[in-house]
Amino acid sequence: MIRKLFLGGLLLAAASTSWGAINLTATAGGGQVSLSWSYSGSTPTVQEIYRDLDSNPNGRVRIASVSTSTRSYVDTGVSGGTTYYYWIKNTVSGVAENSNVASATPSGSGGGTISGSSCGTSGAQTTVNATIRVTSGTYDGGCQRFNAGSALGDGSQSEGQLPVFRVENGATLRNIVIGTNGADGIHTYNGAVLDNIYWMNVGEDAMTIKSSGTTTVRNIEGYDADDKFFQINAASTLNVSNCIIHRAGKVLRQNGGTTFQINVSVDRCDINDMGEGVFRTDSSSSTARLTNSRLHDAGTVCIGPWSSCTQSGNTNY
Question: pLDDT tens, 219-242?
Fold first, then answer.
């Protein structure tokens, strides 16, 4: 029998192997999608879960890698009313196979368990001595760890350090781990999408918006930002969802003394141990919103003369 396989984004035809088909089902719930699957043959050596907003596997995002014995998964990084499409991809003896595509439309407004990044810190490592520039399309790091070399900085609070990645013009950076020398993290220009990013030890900042545009950040996790996690240096919109930020001075800071307008939305995040608070600005035209999040020792949520700074659906633990 001939079976179609997706390898590296290419549709190939290959002979069926003895480990058989993957049968995937997706069931919608309130703010979550439950996946279950089975095999008609032997157990794979690698299992990965992918998600997209359409049924075309090109451009899909890996949201988890699970043990070979796992046969179910609950995706909580979703929004109510949106249809999501899923695949299970496994590998046996170096050969990859995809499941059928399964879709579901969760109800409600999203929420549930906050999971942060699925990457972890045990992947392959590389040292970055010159900023990696992503000018278009998608850069997928495969959950590899990128450690800043000394040419970028030392990961302290010293001003003028260089970023590990520069993402421009609405391009996407996904599945990245920034190592223990974070230098100046990630810079965005003219908008960007950051998906499934893990900062092991934030350097000067985790991410800086350097020029105007809309930056979307989702499924992230970061630790030990001595000052601020997000730095905003230009009139822009920042939408953050499904994040874990622990041990920082504050979650976000608009560049001190500036009066341009920023609009910030943070949803479904776990914010723990802030030295000062969550949002800080000196601009009376800027807005911020914190929703459906968990807070612990988070300090003052709204610092400065925000035009609007609101909260809803948050809990303290």
Answer: 999 999 999 999 999 999 999 999
Structure tokens at 24: 């995937």
Q: Which residues fall within 8 angstroms of residue 313, CB to CB, at 6 or more apart?
A: 111, 291, 292, 293
Q: Which pLDDT belongs to residue 12?
A: 36
Residue 137 CA from chain centroid, whole number: 16
257 φ/ψ sector (left φ>0, alpha ψ -120 to 50, else beta):
left
Residue 315: count of CB within 10 angstroms of its CB: 9
| 114 closest CA partner among 219, 265, 207 | 219
Mention every residue, 6+ apart, whose C-beta is less than 8 A from residue 215. 188, 191, 192, 193, 194, 207, 209, 236, 237, 238, 239
Q: How many CB atoms lie within 10 A of CB 162?
A: 19
Distance of alpha carbon 161 from alpha carbon 204, whole angstroms: 7
Q: How confident is the model at residue 158 (pLDDT cuts 50, 70, 90)?
A: confident
Using CB atoms within 10 A of its CB, is residue 153 exposed (0-12), middle (13-18) or buried (19+)? buried
CA distance 220 to 17: 37
Q: What is the pLDDT of residue 108?
A: 59
Confidence of residue 82 (pLDDT cuts 50, 70, 90): confident
Q: Residue 247 is encoded by which pair of tokens?
A: 């041990």
Query: How many other β-carbons are positioned within 10 Å of the β-carbon of residue 137?
Result: 11
In percent, how much of the chain has pLDDT > 70?
Answer: 90
CA neighbours closer than 13 Å in the CB half-sphere of residue 33: 26
